Amino acid sequence: MTMATSPPPPCRKQQSMLLLMAFVVAAALSTAPSWAQSPPLQYNFYGTSCPQAEATVRNVTQGIISNDRTMGAAFMRLFFHDCFVRGCDASILIDPTSSNPQVEKKAIALRGYAEVNTIKAAVEAVCPGIVSCADILAFAARDAAVVSGSFSPFDMPSGRRDGTVSNFFDVLQNIPSPINKLPDLISNFAAKGLDVDDLVTLSGAHSFGKARCSECNGRLYPTVDPTMNTTYAAALKTVCPAPGTGGGDPVLNNNRVAADPNVLSNQYYGNLVTGQVLFVSDQQLTNSTYTAAKVANYSADAALWMQQFATALVKMGNIQVLTGTAGQVRKYCNVVNS
C-alpha cells in the first residue's frame, strides 16, 4: 500500500518563502545601478578626517559673496546643474581635454568655476586629498542660502565622491528647459527622485541670479504672453530686443521686481502670482490647483518656504551620489586625477 505523502510542516514552507524572497531581493540589487548600493551620506562626515572642512568652505564662500553678491546665485546654480546631470558628483566642473572636448560646462554658460577652485585650494591647504569637490559644491550652495537668503544655518550631509565622466550631451538630456510645461517639469524632477513639492520649492531659487533674454523672448515676441503682466512685459522689451534685430542677447536679473536682485527670498512666489516672472517654466507653477496653492502659501509665509527650501536642497544633494570607494576625491576640481 502506498503511503500518502503528508504536506511539509508550516515552518518548512516559511523557510522556502524566505529563501525565495532573499533570492528576489538579491537579484534586484544585482541589477540596480551602482550608486543605489553605495553607503548613504552622513552628517559631519569629515568630523574626524577634516574637522575644519565645513568651516573653511563657509568662510571662503562668505568672503566670495561679500566681494561679489551675484555669486550666491552662481553657487546655487552650479549645485543644481551638477546634481541634475549625472548626480551630485562635481562633473560640471571638469575642463575639456583633447581626449574629451565635449564636457558638461561646454553645454551651458555658468559662473563660479574659478571661485570653486579657490574654495578647493583653501580646503586642500588644511586637509589635502580628503574633501571632494562634490561636497564643496553642496556646502557652498548651503552657505549661499545662509549668506544671500538670511537662512538659519542648516546641516548638509556629506561623503560624496567625485565622478570621472563629463558629457556635453548629458546636459541636454537632463536639465529642465525654461520653456518646459508643468507635466514635463514634474516628470523631469521625478526622474531625479524629486516630487512636485520639491519642484515648486526649489524654483524659489529664481528669486536671484541672472538669465539671458533668449530664455524669455518667446514670451515677448511676436506677441506678449497673455499670462505675463503687461507693465512687466513692456519693461522687459526695453531690455530684450526682438530676435533677429541685431540687438544681441543681453543678460538681465531673474528678479526684476525686487529692490535687491541678489537676495534669495520668497518674493519669487509673489512675482508668480502677479505674472512678473521670466520663464514659461516659472509661470507654469500656477497652472494646477495644487501647485498654485503652494505658490500662494509660500508667497504668504517666508519662514515656511525657507524651511522647506533647506529640506529640498538637502534632498537634491542626494541625487545619484558616489560614496564609499566609488569615484575619487579630485586634487583639483577642474581635472580628473591621473
From TrEMBL:
One Pfam family it belongs to: peroxidase
Residues noted as binding Ca(2+) in the record, renumbered to the chain: D82, V85, G87, D89, S91
Q: Where is the active site?
A: H81 (proton acceptor)
Give the site residues for Transition state stabilizer. R77
Q: Which GO terms describe its molecular function?
A: heme binding; lactoperoxidase activity; metal ion binding
Q: Which residues form the Plant heme peroxidase family profile domain?
A: 40-337
Q: What is the name listed in the Swiss-Prot or TrEMBL entry for this protein? A: Peroxidase
